[in-house]
Fold this protein.
Amino acid sequence: MSNDEELKQKVIEWFQKHSKEGHTKFYMKDVVHDLCGQYEKRAIQKAMNDCTVDGTLKYWSTGSSTMFCLPENF
Amino acid sequence: MEDKTPMVDELEKGPWPSYVKELKRAAKKHDSVKDLIKVQERSFQRKMTQWKHGGIVGVKGYGGGVIGRYVQNPEEFPNVAAFHTMRVNHPSGWFYDTKALRTICDIWDKHGSGMTNFHGSTGDIILLGCTTEELQPTFDELSEHGFDLGGSGSDLRSPTACVGPGRCEWACFDTLGLIYDITKTYQMELHRPPYPYKTKIKASGCPNDCVAAIARSDFSLIGTWRDNLRIDQNAVKEYADKKFDIQRLVVAKCPTEAIELVKGKLELTHPEDCVRCMHCINLMPKAIRPGVDTGATILVGAKAPIIHGAVLSTVLIPFIKVQPPYTEIKQLWEKIMEWWDENGKTRERLAELIDRMGMPAFLKAIDVEPCPQMVNTPRANPYFFWG
Amino acid sequence: MEDKTPMVDELEKGPWPSYVKELKRAAKKHDSVKDLIKVQERSFQRKMTQWKHGGIVGVKGYGGGVIGRYVQNPEEFPNVAAFHTMRVNHPSGWFYDTKALRTICDIWDKHGSGMTNFHGSTGDIILLGCTTEELQPTFDELSEHGFDLGGSGSDLRSPTACVGPGRCEWACFDTLGLIYDITKTYQMELHRPPYPYKTKIKASGCPNDCVAAIARSDFSLIGTWRDNLRIDQNAVKEYADKKFDIQRLVVAKCPTEAIELVKGKLELTHPEDCVRCMHCINLMPKAIRPGVDTGATILVGAKAPIIHGAVLSTVLIPFIKVQPPYTEIKQLWEKIMEWWDENGKTRERLAELIDRMGMPAFLKAIDVEPCPQMVNTPRANPYFFWG
Amino acid sequence: MCPTDVGPPDFKTMLPDVIKKNYGKWKYHEILKPGVMKHVAESGDELYTVRAGSPKLVSTDFIRDLCNVADKYCDGHLRFTSRYNPEFLTPKKENVEPIIKELNKLGLPVGGTGSGPGACLSNVIHTQGWIHCHGAASDASGIVKALMDELYDYFVGKKTLPAKTRLSLACCLNMCGAIHASDVAVVGMHTRIPNIDHEKMRAMCEIPTVAASCPTKAIRRHPDPNIKSVVVDETKCMYCGNCFTVCPAMPLANAEGDGVAIFVGGKVSNARKPPMFSRVVVPHLPNNPPRWPEVVNTVKHIFEVYADNARMGERMGEWIQRVGWERFFKLTDLPFPVQLIDDFELARDTFRSTTQFKWT
Amino acid sequence: MCPTDVGPPDFKTMLPDVIKKNYGKWKYHEILKPGVMKHVAESGDELYTVRAGSPKLVSTDFIRDLCNVADKYCDGHLRFTSRYNPEFLTPKKENVEPIIKELNKLGLPVGGTGSGPGACLSNVIHTQGWIHCHGAASDASGIVKALMDELYDYFVGKKTLPAKTRLSLACCLNMCGAIHASDVAVVGMHTRIPNIDHEKMRAMCEIPTVAASCPTKAIRRHPDPNIKSVVVDETKCMYCGNCFTVCPAMPLANAEGDGVAIFVGGKVSNARKPPMFSRVVVPHLPNNPPRWPEVVNTVKHIFEVYADNARMGERMGEWIQRVGWERFFKLTDLPFPVQLIDDFELARDTFRSTTQFKWT
Ligand code: SRM
Ligand code: SRM
Ligand code: SRM
Ligand code: SRM
Ligand code: SF4
Ligand code: SF4
Ligand code: SF4
Ligand code: SF4
Ligand code: SF4
Ligand code: SF4
Ligand code: SF4
Ligand code: SF4
């Protein structure tokens, strides 16, 4: 697995771990904050965006603020 | 469902150009707008919005640029069941050639409702009313033709500039050039919401501030000059000859008594007192001009009332030269964004964060030296830190 | 223990009257002041106070009027081991006859240190330095001679008034009469701390505010008038004849352009614009006087910085007539105290409570109608209640 | 695969030749008449601008109409101002009148220029309203049309104003358009607490997030633990809509309670006085579509009092600052309800800490 | 048994005859020279006032000295002003010079009057300092003596000021004397966190009360549960002394850290401009008894710059408001450290929301 793929995987795992009933949508910041010890901030941001292109994550927005979630929680 | 829309129709009358007329024009081609008119009538009857909250859509890879919208009663108004808007970024200064405009119109008639806001109040072209399915095709076709989405959500919103050097003799820097450069440089930040909340950049070429940067951008650039304004005494004489009351209308209104009539001549008798408010220049554009050592003041923090009340931007950098490639400005902005991103709570704008952490902490974090120009007055309370 | 006090002695020199000289005069009669001088020298050496925190003392039946004080090193300074102050309430306007003053002096030389603050900054006579044992005898003797204690702790502090009708031509009401009446009426509140914290009342006879009521009293009365100021044109002429520059020094500085020189006459051309700032009157006391329909503006909330920063009083009642028995004023004050007492947290002054509960809630509670005079501007934020 | 992140077109490709040539080298301008300006470059070149009013909410055909005019007289170029007004730019003086004629034929007024004495009213900055927003406490396009029909003469310069006057409208207190520093602002306002949909709450919202969203801590968990929802404390709710933004189950819309507030006296430019906020002068007027007579009359009345009383060149806020708010209320005959007295975070600084005030 | 609640003596019994007669019926006044005023009543009666400077902290013998003068020339009456200055009142013009002579013989300067152009400096409002207060971060009487020795000429009118100038001093930020609206204020300031005495804490203080007293929440329970005390977070402490007020175990006094701050530009009267707060211009100067040279020089320097630059009749704060704070710092050559920028509760309103400022 390339570094990129590995990071995307980590991101998805993060979402699987943190999504629970009543709390499924997260800010980019939440994820970056948790993973930034291991990875560079920009790389995490890019991985999250790449996930939305793959469809493994989805953007969720109120119009004014933007969050991410797993497709099944959309 | 009643098809008559008497209340809406009422607004076809009257001298001011009617949006209802526009709706009806679009309704001829688009069933969605037929329903939209009925929805508007319903709102008038019920005195309430007929739209549901949010509902989220976007185009591939982008986290912003689309506002999802669904009607409350899709069974009654099926053609606006999903009626999203797309925010399309504008060329700096809102300059267009008709070819580009016609292209947008054609794409939008093909994929959407044919209704627009030209423009939205941030400055985007608002394509108003799109089904979920048509979002991606609309975007694809737009981007093929050189247009791209603007911001929405927790991202950098479409930066805007006053017309500046495009037409205005007072532009103290190239507002259009700067804003275009910034827009291009930060495409990532525009399209992929990385921040705690929205953030805005606007640039006005002089203190008249024709894009209202000081009122509505977290990072506001406003043109100014460091030397003295220039006066052409011949032109002054022309104004006087035309019975323009220089004393009453100009001199008496200078906020700092910097400019005076001395034996028929208009003189900047106290150049060090001029606060470059533009008033005298505004009133006598043929006779008075800004200086030649021009640049910008950078102010930060403006925003609308949510949550702690509206804020106007406040001085951060009294003077900076504004020249391509604008490195210093961009580095400053990036530093600010980093601090905000690091410390900001969700839905907390820059000004609110500064208020919460304190201006001194902000200055320290972004490595800017304090100076008296930043404040109207020093503090009155004795509560300061040395730690 | 070294008896030399070189640093303190240094302050006997110089043109301004020396408190050190005063200390040494008292030290001749009082051992406590001998020690006090040494304590002062020690403070100068160590750059620190040599006094301990608090300690509660008082006279029988009173909760205020005495500030307990103990020295940090009683073994070194035994004569100031306990060195309390008594706050003795002053006659309104700080008027005395020498008999009364000599009586106080004699009592204080008998029971205390012979040192005083004439006066303390609230306005009391501060008898500075008393042992615990001598407090009650001092008080007893004072009260026998018609003097009583002032406030301290969570009570009404000694109310004060400017000299007003006693000597000043501008007094718009009887400051001395009102303050004496209030002081007598609220002896209970002055001596037996019933409140969440201290509270103060001050009265100035006109907007010059010579007791600084607006800066330091929770309930501030400031004289004003409802009709027009009075101008004596003959006197104006006298000023003009003496080359007094009326235009530059008076007219140009009127904050509202209400007064103008019209063909050598000084006229209140816009009486409705006069904000009664006193400026023109102050500069031309022989020619201009307040109007005759006089009374007071009541403002509330002034205080020093602890805890939320200093506050100036703000307009509550734009105009009230001030006439004995002052019923309306006293009822208003009582209502305010009741609300404060009911809702205030400990150590929360009136202004802080108003800020916490909101001015509208305060007005409602004390049943005062809102009016534009209460504010500089209406609110800018959209967050108001209807509930 | 389509390109992404192309950004907007380069504005330089959109400029008419006369601007390309004189870019950044303008010398002065004149306002020839309402809606018509002449800019002169250092080179001596001239640029004429004709500005038209637009309803902002327009069809593609409207834009094509504009394009036709631009093709005919402006070498295929036009621009829009920061307040939505289309501008037609041409170096040819002789094109000015024909452009005006064509625009009038399209039903578009020409005007909206000027800042000093004799200024026109510009177009209203406004928002979505009931046309598109879920949060709107009032409409936008409808009320703006009603307003501008009445204020039309101010736009075209038949009536003038003492100085630049910016009229703005937002359909809720989010104040899209940043209208908080306008000479006159009309703001949609709720006055009733959220009408909670407990069903939806369970399905769509996260309770801790909802509770946290309320700036006044008016939201608590529902006392009945079986109901996974919240309740709102009526005395604490200031109808701000923060809860609704994060949770669709808390709409504030209410046919009786919704309406608008009028704010007055803001400005943005740094000319003479620094920028100022607009201030609430009427806390509530009802929604009465389609013509909102109460709102239109109040705004028009304020315009008239301003025009009658301010000095030449004095912005609304500058005038009020000079004469005082007490005089403003007297002159306009507007009541002064307690809602106008600030009780939010910086309220203290709005109180009057001086005996300087006027009786009137 | 002694009477209680007798209240202060009735002031009416203390008034000299000429005042009793003309009470509330004064017509005008004149300042004849520094420290000497003449008030004229409607009746034509005249009242002469001679004002002297006092060190405020005085012995009973000092008061007896004053009584002797009053007995000799003023029928046994005198008063004190709201700034502690004794005033001698007499209807007899011929008594004025003898009073002055006697006062001078006692070492007391006559002066301190006037507000307009050519005003004298009045006496310093001040507090207890190291003479009596447990919280003092600086002395009061000592530093005031050092100041007034240098500013003496301004009191007696040998040097004059553009307008009334109120110099005030408080020995800690409680600001007894309400000096927060003075033309120049000197305020004792701690700059180190409380030095906690854990023993005393156990004996004398209630920990929850102590923790609650801190406005910045800098106080937490001691991490070691065996120590029944608290710790202070250095980054959050603003040295306000609230904790010390409720708990003697938390003194802030520190020989190195203590000193004074200088505030400038406040006023109280409503004349011309509304009342204003004083603003911090020097956040820290050291305590250097007995003559505090840094403080004295700084204050004197500010006086001189003010006298040289302000217009006639312009209070310190009015002058600064007109020329701007940036100019004040330029003219005084004082540095602008970050502590001067507000970060307390109403800080937002002190920021500059305009491009209007001066380069200097
Ligand atoms: C003696 C006096 C200073 C002086 O030398 O003149 C004084 C001395 C003290 N003041 Fe004061 N205050 C004195 C007038 C004032 C004034 C001026 C006034 O009343 O016009 C103020 C500002 C006005 C106000 O009330 O806001 C004042 C505001 C304070 C404060 C801050 C109150 C606030 O709300 O901000 C405190 C702190 C406190 O109450 O905890 C305080 C507390 C104190 C204490 C009791 C110290 C304490 O924390 O317990 C001082 C005792 C000193 C001592 O050892 O004797 N003192 N204090 C003044 C009273 C003399 C008199 O009765 O005539
Ligand atoms: C076209 C536009 C800039 C753009 O990039 O689109 C523009 C263009 C000009 N402005 Fe502006 N201003 C434009 C929006 C603004 C705004 C923002 C707004 O209105 O939302 C402001 C701030 C308004 C405020 O303070 O609230 C603005 C405040 C000014 C001022 C200062 C007026 C004052 O005295 O406060 C001037 C000076 C003047 O006109 O005397 C000015 C002057 C000018 C001049 C004369 C500059 C020039 O030499 O070209 C331009 C023609 C003005 C006219 O309409 O008479 N412009 N101008 C904007 C037209 C908007 C519209 O359609 O009405
Ligand atoms: C479309 C537009 C109004 C218009 O008709 O022109 C708009 C529409 C919305 N705005 Fe806005 N805002 C629009 C310009 C603004 C501006 C003006 C500006 O950018 O110059 C502001 C004030 C400046 C600022 O950012 O502070 C603005 C301040 C807000 C706020 C309050 C933000 C704050 O920090 O106070 C919200 C509320 C939020 O973010 O939750 C908001 C939220 C919204 C939302 C997304 C509603 C929501 O709560 O989710 C609206 C979607 C309406 C819809 O159904 O389409 N909108 N909004 C404007 C964007 C068009 C464009 O891209 O050109
Ligand atoms: C005696 C005293 C009242 C008292 O009850 O004790 C008093 C007495 C007079 N004041 Fe005062 N003021 C007295 C404290 C004040 C204060 C309070 C303070 O200084 O702490 C103020 C507010 C100061 C401020 O604004 O910060 C004050 C602001 C004024 C003013 C307004 C000055 C201005 O332009 O801002 C005047 C008018 C004038 O003098 O032109 C005034 C005028 C006067 C007049 C001329 C009134 C009169 O007709 O008798 C009196 C003689 C003034 C003089 O000294 O030249 N008095 N006056 C106070 C003397 C204090 C002292 O010993 O210096
Ligand atoms: S902000 Fe200044 S430079 Fe820009 S258009 Fe307005 S007046 Fe011209
Ligand atoms: S630009 Fe403004 S401050 Fe400067 S001289 Fe002109 S009017 Fe005065
Ligand atoms: S406040 Fe007014 S009435 Fe009282 S002494 Fe001062 S000037 Fe006279
Ligand atoms: S009292 Fe003040 S406001 Fe009234 S006329 Fe005199 S100077 Fe002007
Ligand atoms: S102002 Fe409020 S209701 Fe109107 S578009 Fe903006 S968010 Fe929606
Ligand atoms: S509308 Fe605002 S104040 Fe009311 S409950 Fe919702 S978030 Fe709280
Ligand atoms: S200012 Fe502070 S230290 Fe000085 S007397 Fe008042 S409370 Fe004590
Ligand atoms: S001095 Fe003030 S800020 Fe510091 S710990 Fe004590 S109460 Fe808190």
The mean pLDDT of chain B is 96. Residues 160-225+293-380 of chain B form a domain with the Sulfite Reductase Hemoprotein; domain 1 fold (CATH 3.30.413.10).
